[in-house]
Amino acid sequence: MKKKTAVAAVTVLLVCIAVYLNWSYQRDALDGMEPADGSAVESVGNLGDSVLVGGTVADAATKEALDAYFDSARLARRQARDTALSILENTLQGEGAAEAARAEASAAVQEIARNTIKEGNIEGIVLSKGYTNCLAYIGDGGLTVIVTSASGAISALDTAKITDIAIAETGLSADKIKIVEATPEKE
């Protein structure tokens, strides 16, 4: 019985590690968007084929890098989830797994599925409100929403709208929701 409980505990620990690594990777990728001069990314704005980043003009590659960030973050999120689901499936299908371990693994699979649906709903609704790109990530009892907008910097009203969407979809309180903006400025 102790061995089965230990297997369940290790499985849950591995899932938590996978989720943490995914969150950490996404945060590091966004931090990597800072300009070489060390100034923080304040905004990204279209200036013809150039882009304004942190008050300095960069080429269109910066905008492409921002788009690539969203693509790579989505891929990393999916890969982390696939790994976690694979571990959980092995626990569910394992002949020697205790009933408690199977129940825990099943609950974790259901939680991952619910979070995936909530993130997709948030992203879809935010995009339908006119934002250029959106990535939602639920983890560690909170939600991070990363948004870009072609219309300019995200205002307090925009933040409130996105927060309302997140609250409606997740049931989390506003203090558990973080909005990160990477917003194009108006020409």
Would you mind describing this structure in some detail?
- With 187 residues, this protein is α+β, with helices and mostly antiparallel strands.
- It has a single domain, classed as Stage III sporulation protein AH-like (Helix Hairpins).
- 58% of the residues lie in helices and 17% in strands.
- The protein is built from four helices and six strands, in the order αβββααββαβ.
- It has helices at residues 2-31, 60-93, 99-128, 156-170, and strands spanning 44-47, 50-53, 56-59, 133-139, 142-148, 177-181.
- The strands form two sheets. The chain has a three-stranded antiparallel sheet. A three-stranded mixed sheet has the order 4-5-6, sandwiched between helices.
- Helix 3 packs antiparallel against helix 4 (156-170).
- The radius of gyration is 19 Å and the shape is elongated.
- The model is unreliable at 32-59 and 183-187 (pLDDT under 50).
Record the SSE blueprint:
Elements (H helix, E strand, L loop, with lengths): L1 H30 L12 E4 L2 E4 L2 E4 H34 L5 H30 L4 E7 L2 E7 L7 H15 L6 E5 L6
Parallel strand pairs: 5-6
Antiparallel strand pairs: 1-2, 2-3, 4-5
Helix pairs in contact: 1-2, 1-3, 2-3, 3-4
Name some characteristics of this structure.
4 helices, Helix Hairpins, elongated, single chain, three-stranded antiparallel sheet, three-stranded mixed sheet
